[in-house]
Amino acid sequence: MIKAYAKSDIGRLREKNQDAYYISDSLDQIQLYMLADGMGGYNGGEIASNLAIQSAKNYIENNFKEIEKSKENIIQLVGSAMEYANMVVYEKSKENKELEGMGTTLEICLIYNNRAFIGHVGDSRVYRIRKEFLRKLTQDHSYVQKLVKDGTITKEEAQHHPQKNMLMKALGCNAFVEPDVMVKGFLKDDIIIINSDGLTNLVSTDEIYKEAKKDIEQAPKELIKIANEKGGYDNITIIVIKNI
């Protein structure tokens, strides 16, 4: 059985919450968890994140029943849902001058048969805790991550880099997007954490691990509290999912 808890907070400095999320009820046939962190002036970010989640959710729900439930097919379904959401957000940005250039990150986690099928675009993150280890499953699509990968700067330097928020890839900014799609085991007692960068820019992975292990129901609330105490510069959203 799967239990999931989520919370989103505007933070201490922003006027709007541009994050959006969706979590399945534990009895739903499709176990689906999604998080999006929108960007763009006016109402752009808010519209982009909500639209991405709604589109991807509709796409998966409309097509999941039809497909044979092989690993390859579900991976393809998640990838296609992200491409579809990208198209919807992109088309919307073209309709209205004030929404020009809006975009969003998008994390999709579809859980089926003790596996997590994960789709990822942007710099929101997915982590998995197994036994005593927390592992980051996604690679940030950010300029700073590219510098780390190229060996230009260290992971420590990346933490405080002035161009930390610059994305190399986001959903809805171009007509086409190439999401990362992967499948990971999701065994009994494993915990998956999905979060926007409003959390990880301020809260260490040790603190994330500690709170999630302690109490999955309270973890989103506690982690938001910690992020706000450390400045709360951005919207903060967290989903915690456990295979019980």
List the helices and strands and how they pair.
Elements: E1 2-9, E2 19-23, E3 31-39, H1 44-64, H2 71-95, E4 103-104, E5 106-112, E6 115-121, E7 125-130, E8 133-136, H3 143-149, H4 155-159, E9 180-185, E10 191-195, H5 197-200, H6 205-214, H7 219-229, E11 236-243
Antiparallel strand pairs: 1-11, 2-3, 3-4, 3-5, 5-6, 6-9, 7-8, 7-10, 10-11
Helix pairs in contact: 1-2, 6-7
Q: Could you characterize the architecture of this molecule?
A:
Helix content is 34%, strand content 27%. It is globular and about 40 Å long. The protein has one domain (2-138, 168-243): Phosphatase 2c, domain 1, CATH 3.60.40.10. It has 244 residues and is α+β, with helices and mostly antiparallel strands. Helix 1 (44-64) packs antiparallel against helix 2 and helix 6 (205-214) runs antiparallel to helix 7. Strands 2, 3, 4, 5, 6 and 9 form a six-stranded antiparallel β-sheet that branches. Strands 1-11-10-7-8 form a five-stranded antiparallel β-sheet. It contains seven helices and eleven strands. A hairpin with a 2-residue loop joins strand 5 (106-112) and strand 6.
- Shape-level CATH architecture: 4-Layer Sandwich
Radius of gyration: 17 Å
Which fold name fills CATH's third level, the topology?
A: Phosphatase 2c, domain 1
Secondary-structure element string:
EEEHHEEEEEHHEEHHHE
Provide the CATH top-level class: Alpha Beta
Shape: globular
Please count the helical segments.
Answer: 7
- Helical content band: 25-40%
Structural class: alpha+beta
Which ranges are low-confidence, i.e. pLDDT below 50, for 5 or more consecutive residues? none
CATH superfamily: PPM-type phosphatase domain
The percent range for strand residues is 25-35%
Mean of the pLDDT scores? Answer: 96
Query: How many DSSP-defined strands?
Result: 11
Largest sheet: 6 strands, antiparallel
Report how far the terminal alpha carbons are from each other.
Answer: 5 Å
Total number of distinct structural domains: 1
